Amino acid sequence: MNIKLDKKQAIAIASIAAAGIVLAILILGTGKSMTAPPAAAKTEAHAEKKDEHGHEEVEGRLELSAAQSKAAGVLIATAAPGSIKTTVALPGEIRFNEDRTAHVVPRLAGVVEAVQADLGQLVKKGQVLAVIASTELSEQRSELLSAQRRLSLARSTYEREEKLWREKISAEQDYLQAQQAWREAEIAVQNAQQKLSALGASASSKGPLNRYEIRAPFDGMVLEKHITLGEAVKEDANIFIISDLSTVWAEIAVPAKDLATVRMGGKAEVKASAFDASAQGTITYVGALLGEQTRTAKARISLLNPDMAWRPGLFVSVEVVSGVADAPVTVQSTAIQTVEDKPVVFVQVKDGYQATPVVLGRNDGTLTQIKQGLAAGTPYAAQGSFVLKSELGKDAAGHEH
Question: Confidence band (pLDDT; 50, 70, 90) for 132?
Fold first, then answer.
């Protein structure tokens, strides 16, 4: 069907079509303006990661000059392969070196005339600790003096009889009897001397024959003293305990599962529980039997103690090396810090340091294995990392404000 439009109708239809086109353009323009703000927000958010100079900031980055690093005590090291020691930690206690501890007894009964050593005093070998008046010692010295005089007489008689016999004046029998008497007198003197030596007394005394001096058997400290002036003591009384504290023992209890690790001749590190001190020692004894109650074996480590720092009774922790493992990447344990509950290492970068998250492996207190996050040859802050962590926290707090 053909419809003919006049001029007015055609103009109206064209106007309606034009209005529709304009309306469509307006609608499309409005949609584009609605999607524009996210792009602007993205730009603004990106701008928030820039510092006041317009430089882009990286999370965990700390700008620090060489002079500031030196002032903070930062020392740089390089991550490298290393050997990590595997240790077994066992509790222990410092004890006296029993091989250098003596229970001093008089060996003679008597009355105490003098006490010349005090509790806690350092004494030298041969130093007089106490003096006792002993009747038994007086008898022993008298016996020695008599034997010495008999020996002198027997020697003179022998020499005279030998001369007479050689000159054919005296019979050979008289000469042989004089020789026998001389030999017996020598034996008597030796016997009396050995008796005094066994008692620890000298053969002669500057003072009375009954004066008995008790002397220190070696250099050490007087740990116990059970003697007073005027006291009557028996020959087996424990009057002094002296110990040489220049060496001590660290005694540990070793469970059955660790007996394969703790072996005689092995090295161990002893650490004090009460203060910051450690020392290297050698395992000198491992018990062959397990205790019925504890099911552990006793072991001990011999320690040098020149400064008397290791006092008997001190509780210690003993670390025994059980093995050594090679690690491809290690850092000094002092370099490890925790940031946002994650272990990090401050890696040296241009104009500062970067807190780099890492995955830790074994450590022996000196070196720590890095499983992930750090490559060998990377420079890092081995000392002073705690200062860097503090500075990083300050920067983060400043940006929040």
Answer: very high
Q: Please state, in angstroms and rounded to a whole number, the distance separating the CA atoms of residues 189 and 367.
A: 70
Sign of the Cα pseudo-torsion (71, 77, 83, 84, in order): positive
List strands edge to edge, sheet with 128-133: 211-215, 128-133, 110-115, 232-233
CA–CA distance, 198 with 107 (Å, rounded to integer): 9
- Kindly give the pairing relationship between strand 278-286 and strand 110-115: unpaired
The greatest distance separating any two alpha carbons of the chain, rounded to the nearest whole angstrom, comes to 195
Residue owning tokens 């005027």: 230
Do 363 and 332 meet the contact criterion of CB atoms below 8 Å apart? Answer: no
pLDDT, tens only, 312-342: 999 999 888 777 778 888 998 888 988 888 8
Report the alpha-carbon angle 363-285-239, nearest 5. 125
Strand (E) or helix (H) holding 344: strand 342-349
Region 341-360: what's the mean pLDDT? 89
d(CA 102, CA 214): 13
Residues in contact with 314: Cβ distance below 8 Å, sequence separation at least 6, in sequence order: 93, 94, 272, 273, 274
**pLDDT tens-digit readout, 43-92:** 333 333 444 434 344 467 878 778 888 888 888 889 889 888 777 888 99
Give the residue among 252, 274, 268, 264 at the shortest CA–CA distance from 303: 268
SS3 137: helix
pLDDT band at 261 (very low <50, low <70, confident <90, very high): confident
How distant, in Å, are the alpha carbons of 109, 152, 159, 169, 175 from that of 155? 36, 5, 6, 19, 12
* Helix-helix angle 172-198:135-166, to 10 degrees: 160
- In angstroms, the CA 204 to CA 213 distance is 12
Give the whole-angstrom CA distance, residue 396 versus residue 59.
Answer: 9
Angle at 300 between CA 294 and CA 301, to 5 degrees: 145
Residue 145: both structure tokens together: 């003096």
* CA angle centred on 39, ends 34 and 44, rounded to 5°: 125
Q: Does the pTM of the predicted model rise above 0.70?
A: no
Torsion of CA 33, 35, 36, 39, to 10 degrees: 180
Alpha helices, H only, 212-258: none
Cβ atoms of 218 and 208 within 8 Å: the answer is no
